[in-house]
Amino acid sequence: MARLTSRLLGLTQLLAVLGAVNGYVEMFSGLQARQINPGQLAAAYDYIVVGGGHSGLVIANRLSEDSGRSVLVVEYGYFDNNPAQVEPASATQYLARNLFNLSSVAQPGIGNRQGQVYAASVVGGGSTVNGMLFDRGSAEDYDIWERLGNPGWGWAGLLPYFKKSTTFTPPSPELTREYNITWDIEGAYGNGPIQATFPDWQWPGIKIQWKAWAEVGMPINIEGAAGDAFGAYWVPSNVDQQYRRSYARNGYWDPAANRANLKLLTGYRVNEVLFNANKRAESVTIQERGSANGAPTITVRATQEIILCAGWLHTPQILQRSGVGPRALLQQAGINVVADLPGVGSNLQDHPVSRAGFQYQTDVVPNPGSLNSNATFRTWADQQWQQRKGQWVLVMRWSPPRFPS
Ligand SMILES: Cc1cc2nc3c(=O)[nH]c(=O)nc-3n(C[C@H](O)[C@H](O)[C@H](O)COP(=O)(O)OP(=O)(O)OC[C@H]3O[C@@H](n4cnc5c(N)ncnc54)[C@H](O)[C@@H]3O)c2cc1C
Ligand SMILES: *[C@@H]1O[C@H](CO)[C@@H](O)[C@H](O)[C@H]1NC(C)=O
Ligand SMILES: *[C@@H]1O[C@H](CO)[C@@H](O)[C@H](O)[C@H]1NC(C)=O
Ligand SMILES: *[C@@H]1O[C@H](CO)[C@@H](O)[C@H](O)[C@H]1NC(C)=O
After folding, report:
1. CA distance 199 to 236
2. Secretion signal: which residues (predicted)?
3. Residue 18, number of CB atoms within 10 A of its CB
């Protein structure tokens, strides 16, 4: 009895939450014509995309260009329709429900400290919550993937696709000259839906910092996204000309949202991929977000392919749950082994972030602190932002120096 009551209570709370969410969603229903509820699921689709995040929305867009193919995207997160989502401040103010927030295992290299590890859980994935720093790995990073036995996944194979995604718009010639801002359109960009640019105002202290980098012998790069992602270089932001977030949702989902052959189910988790006797992936089981262990699941079939786009954290998890992973681990968890692949769930390379703070003996004004200390400057800055010129857009960053060993 106690159990039943608590279940009913859970359901009531859930309905209340759903009501609130639906109210929010309806305001934007024009953009979400292809969003379905579980009752509208077909038994089978040509393609099932697992995860409607950064890569999932791109893949779903490209696959559904052919109106003869049916595509289902299953996304654990919900839409975030808060208008602030596309403002630069969204890069630092997260809604809890938009993020998986985990602790790492103890890291021996930093005195066994644990790190906070984030992964997106929202339509658009990392592109919806990230810092909008438009950056790539170095050519060598991708070439190593290729050398591990993945033809076409090296730098030369991927660069045309990288370029295809993004249009770069240069800042004003005056600002470019004053700050010596550099980029390489030919080497890094194309004419895709994602927009990248620099804000048309910079903090003056940056000039001194550049001089310092040069003095200490830091290699200076013209462009970081053209294969040499090391040393000091200017990093654009993925924002449009009004400095609004340019991401998978407005670049790849919204333009495709009215395709009748494309469906998106939000608030559902893919638990596992089911294989047939020939080890061909045939279907997925899905379960409502927040529902209890053992709650009902729905099975949806794919007649062509199942494409895992659940990100670095959950794609390996889904594979392991599906019986693809290290044999000993799967057996320990009571999972039938479909393929013994020891690398699944290992060898993650993340990019650690560290910051260095400096106390200037002679401060350069204006600096970011002036926004709080100088009302005149603050007023000017607010006006700039109203006119969409602002410096709120993160301006630049240096990747850690990587010298050849
Ligand atoms: C806080 C933060 C800041 C970042 N800043 C930057 C930056 O400034 N510049 C930069 O280049 N990169 C940045 N990144 C990294 C970048 O955003 C990610 O590398 C990229 O978005 C990953 O894309 P993805 O498609 O692999 O995964 P994601 O975009 O994470 O998509 C995975 C999706 O799958 C969903 N999902 C997970 N499990 C399941 C399941 N079982 N069933 C259904 N759906 C599931 C998730 O909800 C998610 O939406 C940042 C990341 C974070 C989290
Ligand atoms: C993540 O969780 C930690 C502690 O569990 C908390 O301190 C932190 O604020 C959380 N971060 C976000 C963005 O919610
Ligand atoms: C401007 O940047 C380029 C490329 O980084 C560099 O070669 C040049 O020396 C810089 N010029 C000035 C005046 O800083
Ligand atoms: C405050 O900002 C204004 C406008 O940028 C500037 O002219 C003034 O010198 C600043 N005052 C101080 C004390 O820094």
Report:
1. 8
2. 1-23
3. 13
pLDDT at 15: 31
Which domains can be identified in the chain, with CATH numbers? 36-126+255-353 (3.50.50.60), 134-236 (no CATH), 359-405 (no CATH)
Q: What is the best residue among 49, 50, 54, 355 to mutate for testing ligand 1's pocket, by most ligand atoms within 8 Å of CB?
A: 54
Q: Are 109 and 115 in contact (CB under 8 A)?
A: no
Q: What is the pLDDT of residues 15-27, one digit of tens each?
A: 333 333 333 343 4
Cβ burial of 36 (10 Å; 0-12, 13-18, 19+) is middle
pLDDT in tens, 159-171: 999 999 999 999 9
Instruction: Report the DSSP beta bridge partners of residue 223.
Output: none
Question: For residues 368 and 364, what is the distance between their CA atoms, to the nearest angstrom?
Answer: 10
Do the Cβ atoms of 273 and 306 come closer than 8 Å?
yes
Predicted confidence at residue 368, as pLDDT, reads: 78
50-71 per-position pLDDT tens digit: 999 999 999 999 999 999 999 9
- Residue 350 has what pLDDT? 79
Average pLDDT over residues 222-248: 92
Taking residues 67-80, report their average pLDDT. 97
| Lining residues, ligand 1, CB within 6 Å | 50-56, 74-77, 118-122, 125-127, 129-133, 135, 269-270, 309-311, 314, 318
Provide the 10 A C-beta neighbour count for residue 142.
21
Whether the predicted pLDDT of 203 surpasses 90: no
pLDDT average, residue stretch 313-338: 98
